[in-house]
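queue> pop job 88
queue> type: inverse folding (structure -> sequence)
queue> payload:
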């Protein structure tokens, strides 16, 4: 998947392009229970442009456009349970396996996703 930024906003800057690729394997254990593993690679583009009203000498490192973007590789495990009444409960736990971020920025941490779906 990709998010390709075109043009700039009213402040003459644009967020970077983002690219992601995901591969996964899933196994059905019964009509109700399945599990999956997933590997996701992301390339996050850097911000293009700066605010001319902010002086470089007093700028916080977190406001420097060069300190945005990077590459992230994540791994996930998940479980899905389908109830007989059409409800489905999904759980996925994701951990960053490798992060190569540009400059000073916060890294990603582990992520827990819990979802509920209903199909009739």
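queue> result:
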């Amino acid at each position: 998947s990709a998010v390709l930024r075109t043009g700039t906003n009213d402040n003459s800057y644009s967020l970077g392009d983002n690219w992601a690729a995901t591969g996964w394997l899933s196994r059905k254990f019964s009509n109700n229970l399945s599990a999956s593993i997933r590997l996701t690679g992301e390339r996050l583009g850097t911000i293009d442009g700066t605010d001319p009203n902010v002086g470089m000498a007093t700028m916080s490192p977190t406001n420097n456009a060069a300190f945005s973007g990077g590459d992230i590789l994540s791994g996930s495990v998940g479980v899905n349970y389908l109830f007989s009444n059409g409800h489905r409960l999904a759980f996925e736990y994701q951990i960053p396996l490798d992060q190569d971020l540009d400059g000073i920025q916060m890294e990603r941490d582990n992520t827990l996703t819990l979802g509920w779906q209903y199909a009739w």
